[in-house]
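HUMAN: Forgive my ignorance: could you write out one protein's sequence and backbone structure tokens?

ASSISTANT:
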Amino acid sequence: MLRVALDPGGAVVGVALVLLADDGAEGFVDQLAVRADHRGKGLAQALLVDAFAAAREHGAVRSTLSTDSRTGALSLYERVGMVVTSTWLHRAVDLDRGPS
């Protein structure tokens, strides 16, 4: 399900892509994006709430997403009732330099 936010002129300013997983019991927010010049207006929060409602209408009993901690969006997710259930630690090495 693609949820879209438009500005008054009809231009797309935000989207949420919601997939049904776990035999339809879970709404998975695969993508959430708001155009940079429209951030801070509550559009991401509204898109998430709408995505949850759409998933619920299709039989989902929970909604989930994965995020990178570097996005700074954790507080947004917590404001709409989401809780952290697992944390993954990502490690990387620059192959041009080798290990430190």
Observations:
- The mean pLDDT is 90.
- Strands lie at 2-6, 12-21, 26-34, 62-64.
- Residues 43-57 form the longest helix (15 residues).
- The radius of gyration is 16 Å.
